[in-house]
Write a structure and sequence with these properties.
The chain is an all-alpha fold and 462 residues long. It has 2 domains: 229 residues, Growth Hormone, Chain: A; 204 residues, Growth Hormone, Chain: A. The protein is built from 17 helices and no strands.
Amino acid sequence: MAQVLFLRIIRGWSSGFAEYRHTLVLIAKIKTIWRIRGGMMDTQRAQNEFRGQRAIRIGLIILIFLGTALNYLDRQVLALLKPMLQADFKWTDQEFAHFGSSFQLAAAFALLGVGWFIDRVGVRWGYGLAVAVWSMAGMAHAFATTVQQFVVARISLAVAESVNTPAAIKAAATYLPTRERSIGLGVINSASNIGAILAPLTVPLVAVAFGWHAAFFITGLLGFVWLAAWSLGTAKLKPVTSNMARDMESTRPKQKADPWRKLIKDRRNLAVIGAKTLTDLVWWFVLFWAPDFFAREFNLGQSGIGYPTAIVYVLAAAGALSSGFLFPVLLGKGMSANRARKSSMFLYSLLILPLPLAIYAPNQWIAALIIGLGLFAHQGFSTNIFGMTADIVPARQVGSVIAIGALAGNLSGAGMLEFTGWALDHGLGYTPMFLMSASAYLLALGWIHMMQPELVVVNSEE
């Protein structure tokens, strides 16, 4: 009897234990199902967030593109309105030149601090503040009545607009993945040409229809429309750098930048800086004085200067694209990097030589094509300067060398604008400036060859 009872107890325990094991297995399966379901939900949530961030990043590229186009639109308004403004204020050409040179000088020295400003304030707030300030500065032109007031407005515009390029590059580095970054920067870089083309097509027409005050006011107002879109479009923008990468970056010892006094002793850097000094002045000269040239030489009114000026910048945009194709083609034909780079520069140097013939053109359209060919050559040559810099300058120095070159180019541009005003007031016309511009690129190439007879592509880790 006791044995039977003992066996029944053992069977009960075994049955209970089996049921207990079955229960544990069932609980484990439920947990697994919930874990898989939760993982699927997390994956779906991550995919939705990724798609949302990608849409925001596309919006970022569009916003910076529009901001850069506005940048060039606002800076050109004064030059395009010279016929009206000179009729109202009776300025001399030298006084008008002060507006251009003050802009160039302010922009040159602002370049020394804009990188620090963007790093300290951040892209979202820094770029938004810059657009707000330059839009107000653009609108302030509408209320200026003296040369001094216009100069103050130009300086304010220049300082704020100098933030655009560093902010655009930092935004791309911060918010765009590597795969999207080069495409984004390419789209953004094309905006300057778009702005330069749109300005002459729109500003003179607005001025004729509503007056020059309205032209300044409306173009400035566009900046605040952009600012509203920027505020909304970047509210949920997130940096692409992971937390781990940020932690590694914060613990990585930072390499101290080479001082400028050391950089300007390197013949490679001098080749770049000298080339920028000689050639950038041509771009600033045409950007500021081309509308007056068409008005003066072909007796065009305010409404007639827009289309010839736009043609010039359409050809300039084509020049920037052409250089990207020419250099690789020459390399593909077996040329060394030195020969391919210098041959490309030499070709563009020849294309600008006919520039003085624009003075003798039978009409504004032929003149626009000749000047446009000149800016086609300028953009091609300029792109090669940037490419040469990336080739021969150690990677850690490229940013500083480009900054020094931009500073030198702005300073030489200011001198060219002042000289133009003096030459026009003294009856010399545009001939001296066109001759200087036509010869600048062969001189720049000669300078490059003197500084670097052989362009040697350096290791980026040098």
